[in-house]
Structure prediction request, 191 residues.
Amino acid sequence: MTKFAFVAAERANHAVARLCRVIGASVSGFYAWLRAIPVVQGRTEVEAELRGHVGRIFTTRRRVYGAPRVHAELRREGRSHSRRRVARLMREMGLVARQGRRRRPRTTDSRHDLPVAPNLLDRNFAAERPDTAWLADLSYLPTGEGWLYLAAIKDMATREIVGWSMADHLRAGLCVDALVMALQHRRPDPG
Prediction:
């Protein structure tokens, strides 16, 4: 029998403060022990249930979800637990998310038999008047939903972006949309 169990058994006959003083324990410690008894028993059941949900989500999501994503999935299901608790349970269960390889998108494919456009600027990137020389380029940005592709057209005289377009694909329509925007915005003279 622990000290606190003795105090709990005898508190009907004596004052709790006197019993704690006699056995050398603190009153606040006794009441904390008294409150902790039902919580610990309930916590093991809740944690066992939570372990089942964490394991189910982890395997359903192909073992690539870490604690933040598993926590978010639990919240979507209406279960409110802290992310740290989910992380601790995953650690205890030995669940480690697989690291995926980041794939960089290819913006250039030089393996083709198509004709190559002539280099009219001959690396002379200075223009004296606006709308006489435009430079176009493609870029890509990583986002939470995948890659976002950006096509931009720059006027070499003013150094302004005169047309741009963004899309989640790298098809010709991306560049055409940027060119259409530049033509509508600047309306250059023919030629």
